[in-house]
Amino acid sequence: MREIIGFAIQKRLPSMFVAKEWLEAGGLMSYGESLPEMYRRAAYFVDKIFKGARPAELPVEQVTKFELVISLKTAKANRKEPRNTEFALYRDRNLVERFLPTH
Fold first, then answer.
1. Per-residue pLDDT tens for 1-18?
2. pLDDT tens digit string along 40-76?
3. Exposure string over 67-97, b if 16+ CB within 10 A, otherwise e
4. N or C: where does the chain have the smaller number of CB atoms within 10 Å of the terminal CB?
5. Residue 93 and residue 55: Cα distance in Å, rounded?
């Protein structure tokens, strides 16, 4: 992971990853499922099963909430700061995050 991110930073290439953890290591952007939302949905199904539902009868669900996250620290270093004000800023983590529902 560090080699890929190091190469992208050295060459000043925009980089996009699947998980926020890559951003904490220096990546520029990530786009993927909202893991907290997936954990909530998993807990919902576990609760149903504990209450007697048969797993085979539970519906299969697809992810409906995605996250686009931008590392402000990396963006500033690459001179590619986001200009869109619709993003929620997480200044303590130097991340910009936007939740993207799929309809």
1. 778 888 888 888 888 888
2. 999 999 999 999 999 999 999 888 888 888 887 787 7
3. bbbbbbebbeebeeeeeeeebeeeeeebbbb
4. C
5. 39
Q: Distance (Å, rounded) from C-alpha 67 to C-alpha 20?
A: 9
Tokens of 88: 């929620």
Helix-strand-coil split of the chain, %, nearest 5: 35, 25, 40
Encoding tokens for residue 13?
């290439």
**Count of beta carbons in the 10 Å neighbourhood of residue 31:** 15
Residue type, 97: E
Task: Tell me the C-alpha distance between 99 and 35, whole Å.
Answer: 12
DSSP class of 3: H
